[in-house]
Amino acid sequence: MKKEPLSFALPKGRLMEQSRELLHSMGIDFSFDDRRLVADDATGGFRFFLVKNSDLPTYVNHGIAGLGVCGSDVIYESGCDFYKLHTFGFGGTKMCLAGLRDAHNNGNDAALKISTKFTRFTRDYYHRHNKPVEVIKLNGSVELGPVLGLSPYIVDLVETGNTLKANNLEVIRELEDIKVHLIVNPSYYKLNYKRINKFVEDIKAGEAKWNLERQQ
């Protein structure tokens, strides 16, 4: 009897492209052509779902997808518990406190007022450091917070810093390194642990080879 394919959620955008490139190098071929959001690989061993980054933990938490590729920032904001089976070498970034350049902000105000998409992370981070904080939730371009006077500070992911510079902002403090993980629903793992463990070993070997090839 043929086994059901392992279900796998991938986030839209660059992480999906990097994941697909890695999987392709391992002989796992699939594509989301013609705006399709579900795709099977050529061998029938995997079924991939293309989802919004912030929705990915929900799909894995509810068992719609057993596996997923997700950043630690998104995992933390979701409040869900997963097994982290592997940490990828790609997609890493930093969570930072930023503010207007030359505004003499140092993040040491008696109470911080911060605009961010990452409200759970921000509250928990500053509470752990015994720092009063007022958090304003934004879903769009958080850089506008300081520019328009909504808040002196933002907490956001920073990779190159180009968007900050373009809006006269600068990093004040790096708060945490953000990594990308292969996650699995705990119940799904218990049902499929042999196949998943084999896949994790293949991922580790495949990524090492893929990284070597990209450096040549």
Low-confidence stretches: none
Instruction: Tell me the radius of gyration.
Output: 20 Å
The total strand number stands at 11
User: What would the CATH topology of the largest domain be?
Assistant: D-Maltodextrin-Binding Protein, domain 2
Instruction: Write out the strand line-up for the largest beta sheet, numbering strands in chain order.
Output: 2-3-1-4-11-5
Structural class: alpha/beta
Give the oligomeric state of the chains in this entry, treating copies of one chain as homo and distinct chains as hetero. single chain
| Series of H and E elements | EHEEHEHEEEHEHEHEEH
User: Number of DSSP helices?
Assistant: 7
Helix content: 25-40%
Overall 3D shape: elongated
